[in-house]
Design brief:
Shape: elongated
Distance between the termini: 33 Å
Largest sheet: 3 strands, antiparallel
Number of helices: 0
Helix content: under 10%
Structural class: mainly beta
Oligomer: single chain
Number of strands: 5
Strand order of the largest sheet: 3-2-5
Length: about 60
């Protein structure tokens, strides 16, 4: 099942947040593919409405280093 997801940078510091969108490799055993990276640069910045997860797509949310 596909789920639309929204991620917000809710921190008030100057640190940026990265949201990586990964697609599982196909055929099974193939490496996963980074589809896109979204940079949330300031507090209250949010991903757009096209972000979703499914059985073949996942997200990694991390602080930009």
């Amino acid at each position: 099942m596909t789920k639309t997801i929204r991620v917000e940078n809710a921190d008030t510091s100057d640190f940026k947040v990265l949201v990586e969108v990964w697609d599982k490799g196909y055929p099974p055993g193939a490496p996963d593919v980074l589809s896109r990276t979204i940079r949330l640069e300031y507090p209250t910045s949010m991903t757009d409405s096209t972000l979703y997860i499914s059985s073949t797509r996942y997200l990694i949310v991390k602080e930009e280093s």
